[in-house]
Design a protein that fits this description.
single chain, four-stranded parallel β-sheet, 3 domains, six-stranded mixed β-sheet, alpha/beta
């Protein structure tokens, strides 16, 4: 399959071309350039993850090659001797592709393909391919298509020549299936239209969010395959797509549930993070990830059964910082505790992350504790105010119910007295809008942060 930026509507309408389950599996060699003195365990974990990415994309790893260098070779990433060794391995194993763990420059890809006479990809290309296969909604497909075009734009020379005629399969799914017949100007024009389309979708999201104002909002984040969708399902009893593979969820899912107090709340689940996530994807999915930015509390779901969970926590925290969400109150939710065999693992995790809860979404373990912690975190991040609304201003009551959580209402002789909870980040706007109605002399406050 070959990328065609004429695109039209076929990419957005035909899901069958993205179903890797219908395609024959390919063989792949994986390669990596390592910094001298790199931790062997970390290297192994990175290559295992690349193997899992390829498995999700529809390819089986038939061999690997690594080289320690101060820095990758500018022409071929690997040194000349290793390239020759890789060429011999290609001849003996007959794979369909060679995949590098780090991003390659267009020149490196071109030189390697000319030397090896085989398709060469990097981790970013594989991740983009998986996203293309899993995108279901118009928004997700638009985001993936934009990310792919941004990734391919500097690689057009390669796509115009030998690749489009020789190679297909993993790493070449996307906007089209026929030979490329366009140029950079057409790519940029298509990309601009996609950005405009995403802006329109984002405007629709803003309208949808207005109907959810006033409710406590939580967001699930975490490394891919940490169990976020499973946790969403058990907390909300909602039917959501769950599969034990990387990036099973690309689209934001928002569901309602009840906190222990009986207060209705909202929780969202979206795409998982991964190390070396292509910058094009982070940018394209910013509108989807905005659910995380607007949450009152973030639930950072961690697969405690994964021996490299600490690295996963670091990757997620780094990504949240890039999105501007590092200051949002966060609860670490250690999931899959039923799969942890070492009893000391829980003690170590708790010592390193005091604000954490241990659960098993699969078995429904400790969910009440999690809900209580969520409620406490929300209450600590918000501020309580007492308002007095005269009966001649009753039109404000409906707006208040939409804007904030109403804790108590008392109908008095001269008006309505409301006790409301305001999220900390909305306090300034709330105070400006309702300044004349706030009972400043008797203001109540759960946790003063002013």
């Amino acid at each position: 399959m070959l990328l065609d930026v004429n695109l039209h509507t076929h990419y957005l309408e035909d899901q069958s071309v993205h179903d890797v389950g219908l395609k024959p599996r390919e063989k792949a060699l994986i390669a990596a350039v390592l910094k001298k003195g790199a931790d062997p365990d970390v290297v192994e974990e990175h290559l295992e993850e690349l193997t899992l990415l390829l498995d999700t994309a529809g390819a089986d790893v038939c061999g690997r090659i690594t080289q320690e260098r101060e820095r990758p070779d500018l022409s071929t990433a690997l040194g000349k001797g290793k390239v020759q060794e890789l060429k011999e391995l290609v001849e003996t194993t007959a794979p369909a592709m060679v995949v590098f763990d780090d991003e390659l420059s267009p020149a490196q890809v071109r030189n390697l393909e000319e030397e090896l006479n085989i398709k060469v990809l990097d981790r970013s290309g594989v991740i983009l391919d998986i996203f293309a296969a899993h995108a279901r909604t118009v928004e997700a497909r638009t985001q993936v298509e934009l990310a792919q075009l941004e990734y391919l734009l500097p690689r057009l020379t390669r796509m115009w020549t030998h690749l489009s005629k020789q190679f297909g399969g993993v790493g070449t799914k996307g906007p089209g299936e026929t030979q490329i017949e366009t140029d950079r100007r057409m790519y940029r024009g298509r990309m601009q239209r996609l950005r405009e389309k995403l802006l329109d979708i984002d405007k629709q999201r803003i309208v949808q969010r207005k109907g959810r104002e006033g409710l406590p909002r939580f967001a699930l984040v975490g490394y891919t395959n940490a169990g976020k969708s499973s946790l969403l399902k058990v907390l909300t009893s909602a039917e959501v797509y769950i599969k034990d593979q990387l990036f099973a969820t690309l689209d934001t899912t928002v569901r309602s549930f009840s906190l222990p107090s009986g207060q209705r709340a909202l929780i969202s689940d979206t795409v998982g993070f991964i190390r070396k996530l292509p910058t094009q994807l982070v940018a394209s999915f910013r509108s989807t990830l905005s659910e995380t930015l607007e949450a009152d509390v973030i639930l950072h779901v961690v697969d405690l059964a994964n021996p490299h969970y600490r690295d996963h926590i670091a990757v997620v925290e780094e990504t949240l910082a890039k999105l501007g969400a590092s200051e949002t109150p966060t609860i670490i939710v250690f999931n899959k505790i039923d799969a942890v065999s070492d009893p000391h693992a829980l003690l170590d995790a708790e010592a390193e992350n005091p604000m954490c809860v241990f659960v098993s979404a699969h078995r429904g373990v400790n969910l009440l504790k999690l809900l209580e912690t969520m409620q406490a975190a929300y209450e600590e991040s918000s501020i309580v105010r007492l308002l007095h609304v005269p009966y001649d201003s009753m039109q404000l009551i409906a707006r208040l119910y939409a804007d904030v959580e109403i804790l108590n209402r008392a109908d008095l002789e001269d008006g309505v007295e409301l006790t409301v909870r305001v999220p900390g980040e909305k306090l300034e706007a709330f105070s400006a809008r309702y300044a004349q109605y706030i009972a400043t002399a008797t203001t109540l406050q759960d946790n003063s942060q002013e």
